[in-house]
Structure formats: structure tokens, C-alpha cells
Amino acid sequence: MSKTLFEKIWDSHVVVDEGNGRSLLYVDRHLVHEVTSPQAFDGLRLNGRKVRRTDLTFATMDHNVPTSNRSLPILDQTSAMQVKALERNCKEFGITLFDIDSPDQGIVHVIGPELGITLPGTTIVCGDSHTSTHGAFGALAFGIGTSDVEHVLATQCIWMEKPKTFEIRVEGKRRNPHAVTAKDIMLSIIKKLGTAGGTGAMFEYRGEAIEDMTMEQRMTICNMSIEGGARAGLVAPDEKTFDYLRGRRYLPDNYEKLVDYWRENLKTDANATFDRSFTLQAGEIAPQVSWGTNPAMTVDVTERVPFPEEYAKGNLEEEKAAAKALQYMGLKAGTPVMEIRIDRVFIGSCTNSRLEDLIEASRVVKGKKVSEGVRAMVVPGSQHVKKQAEDLGLDRIFKDAGFEWRESGCSMCLGMNPDILAAGERCASTSNRNFEGRQGAGGRTHLVSPVMAAAAAIAGHFVDVRDMDLS
Amino acid sequence: MKGSVIKYARDNIDTDVILPGPYLKIHDYNELAKHAMEGIDKDFHKKVKPGDFIVAGRNFGCGSSREHAPIALSYSGIKAVLAVSFARIFYRNAVDGAFLLPIEIDEETYKEISEGDQLEIETSKNEIKNITKNKTYKMKPFPELIGKIIAAGGLFNYKP
Fold first, then answer.
1. Alpha helix stretches (DSSP H) within A47-159
2. Do B24 and A64 touch (CB under 8 A)?
3. CB neighbour burial string for A145-155, b if at least 16 within 10 angstroms, e if fewer
4. Subunit contact B10:A320, Cβ cutoff 8 A
5. How large is the ipTM?
6. Which stretches does DSSP call E strand in A222-286?
7. What is the pTM of this model?
8. CA of residue B143 relative to chain centroid, distance
């Protein structure tokens, strides 16, 4: 029988099939961080359980670690306690931890692939919704809550109801791949499908524009699957995937043999069918800017902030939501996006903090200055990304322009460490969520690509990066 | 199960407004509860009573995987959230720790239920009685796995 890539990975991990898709799945890799794990470890202790596969479990601290000087102690007492708790738990249960001083520390979804923990054809879970990122490698990767974290720690398995398959085809070529990025493609997909378009499904991204992408670009795409409602997103692995991973630290010894198997098997069969399908033409996509309070509230940079009735197309609920969003965002309908002035710029997060993101953004910044009154920061996704960027001199380019160059972590993506927006501040952000208060209570987030964020930092407002020389 | 309704007539109520990021560092569930819904309703903590239900639109609980969101609602006294649809991680988190029931209702039912209405929910019959309006609605039955986890009283009691 013909199968999709998702079905192949699912079927190869079923431990118990209870019928109707209700299955116990084996978990190949479990990634752990400080925020969603303490109660899970408490639960293990309370019930006298051990971690079943310490060799398949890896931990780091990323969500609430400060990104300023690492030689200083964490001032926030509750953050310090959470970080300490993870150290204690990993020691007690025998789990590999990349702690705050480790050269391997970073955002969990950046370091997984970087260290070769993420592998094609595997199942990967983590107590974080952006676990979907790892799908870029052809892994079935999804976010789970703390109870499931405890369950996986104890059993290395997870109960799941089989999701639907949803094919997302991005056809053709991008017109200007430096200006129209993976982020713009993903925001366009979410804009069209809505934030719940993929609920109950797993996306598989296919088509020429996806095949043309680098691994880092595919990670940006898969990362935001959850913003489209899908718990996971997949891209079939190819030579780029295998090359990216080759030589990384945690690869199994029989890696090349596995590559041969993956090359043959990890793809959707020619006549397999998906439950749903959606197609987008890459050539028609422009740089995107979100104007509202969910990622589907996004327009082309050349457009205006929509009027609620225009956005809602007759749906009264949507109209109300858009009016509320405009109020929260402090925006007037009809304002050209390029006239929106910003106070802050954040280049970072598990969506856009990898080396390539920083290289692309640095091209915009080189030899220029951050606009007066704008505070801009670059937060590399991991210590390795930071080091590689510094070896290329990117830190100098950003610092000379007036950007802050930070230590790795989730930083201003989610407002639970010192990097936050003040109420009313407006931010061009390369992160993934523009929810109310996400970057700090009352903060206003515009989701954009790294090049769009960099250009906004220099101009003080949004600009169309297609007008710049980015080659 | 009987209680009164706190209604948020909007879609996409995300986990960041149900329990804002800064509070994810709190370990004590009763403390977490004090910040439930703070992102859109600063008065929630004052008005919620044990046994209350939340009624909302589509895609409730979208966003982060934080189990803190259903925990904060549960420890505030919320017994069920009735929404047109749920984001999947929240949906699962709600039942894993037996925190609250995520009940899917249709668009009409969502529109008809008002703030303060008294409801009686009978999940065994997939029925919601609106005592205030003297009406009965259907709830969408739980998917098999979710229903079984609920019946077991949470993930760790669930035996296939």
C-alpha cells in the first residue's frame, strides 16, 4: 500500500495499536528544558520511577536564562530556581545536560540538529510547541505538555491519536530568495490557511521551493507549523539533510548505512494520498509583516493595515477580532505598512536565530547605523551559532551598527526572561508569535524575517527589502 | 456537573493570555491560578467561582505547550472549557492531568450561551442543559483516546 512519509514514520514507531488510530508510539529522542520539566521530575520522584532511556534524553536551559553577561548570577530568583532544579534533576536521573556555561547551550530546537541529536525518520518530543522544527529533517517531531513529558521520561512512549495528513505544496521558485525568505513563505501559508487550518493534522511540505531550501530555511518553515494549527511539519530528507548532519557529535556509528536506508525509504510514495492539500506559488510571495495579534493577521509589506471589515470578509467574529487587534497594536486601519515606525528590533528565537539568518541580516546592516531611538538586538540561537558568527565577524558588523550582541537563549520571543518589551513598545521581531503580551505585557509584536527586521532597524520603519541589494 | 458561564466571545484565545510567560516560573499551582486569563481579563481571578465553565470560540488554547494553562484554569475552579474548537496540545494537556474537560460545541451553541448562564453538563449523554435559557444542546463526543483518559482520571491511570 502506498504511504505518505508521515504514515511510514508513524507505522514504524507503533508499539501498541488499540484501533482507530489510537496508538502507543515509541519515542526516539526526548529533549528537555527548564520550564516544562520540573513537575515531571517531581512526579517521577513521587512514584519512585526512573528515566527509562537516559541515553535518548537530552536537556538544556533556554527559556528563562538571561542573554546578557553569563559570568553574572541569574538575578531573578524564580528563574534561578528553575535553572537549578534542572541541574539537580539531570544529575539525579542521569540525563545529559547542556547547562548555562556549556559551549553546546542554546535554544533546544537549534542545538538538537546542531549536535546531530535530530535524525531523519525518528520520533522526537519536547515540552515545547516549536518541537515541530525538527520535522525539517524528516523526523516526526511534536510538542507535548508536562504530563506527557513525565510519561515519556518514565516509559519512552507516548499515547497518540493518529493525525490527518495535510500536504502543503510550495511550487516554483522565489523571485528574490534573499528578500523573500522561508519566513515569508510560512507566514503566507498561515495567512491563507488560518491559525487553526492544520488542527488535527501533520503538514508535509513539498514542491520545488521547499526542495530548493537549505536545511536552516526548512527549519524555519517546520518551526511555525504549530502557528498553522498542526502539531508537526515534515520535509522529506534529501542529500542536503544528510550532508548537514554528517560529522555531528551524536550521530550513530552506522550513520552512512542509515543514510542509504533513509534515501530509499523516507519519502512519500508516488501514488500516496493526503487527507488535505494546499498549494502556494513561491513566485507570488512578497516579504510579510504581521499587523495583528495572531500570525494569520499578516499582509505584504507593500500593503496597508487592513480595515476590520475588509479583513473579515463578512465574518462578524473576525471583524471584531481584527478591531480588537488594531486597538491592541495601536494601529490605524489604512496605514501603509511601510509607514509603521518601530521602537525595538529582535533578531533571534527558534524560528530565525541560526547562522544563515544572521548572515542574511548582516548584509542589510553592514556599514549602516540603527535608526535613532530604535533599540535592536541579535540573540544567536546557540553558543555554536554565536561562535561561528563571531568567526565570520558578524558580531562586529552588528555591534558597529549599534545592535546589542547577546548570549544564546529564547530571549525576547516569550517574555519570561529579562528581555521584554515595555507596554506600548513596538517591535519588529523574527520570532513566531505576535500574541497579546507575548513579548511583555502591552508589547506590540510584528513578525518578520531577519532581513526585514534588520532593514527596519536601520530605517526605523518597515521597508521592502526587495528594493535593496542583498546579493 | 453544574456551574455558571464566564464567556469570552472571541477566537484564538492563546496560552500566552491564559497564563502569560512571566508566570511559567511559578511552581505552586494555587499561585499560578491567581494569574489565569490575566492576558485578557485582569478580573478573572476575582470573578471565577469553583465549578464555573468558560465558553469561547474557535481554536481555544492555541500556541505554547505549557500545561500551566489548563492547570491555572483548573486551580481557579474551572471545571470545563466549552469552545467551538481547541488547539491540540491544550486539548490533550487538559485531560492528561485531569485538570478540566475540553468540550467542543457547535457555532450555534457558542453564540446562544451567555455570560452567567447556568449549565448542567452530562458527558455520558453528550448533552449540555442551559438551565437559565431552558434549552438543551449537543456536545461533540470526545475522541476515543481523550474519552478513555478522562474516564481513567488522567494519563497515569489510563490502561488500554
1. 77-93, 108-114, 146-155
2. yes
3. bbbbbbbbbbb
4. yes
5. 0.96
6. 232-234, 276-281
7. 0.97
8. 16
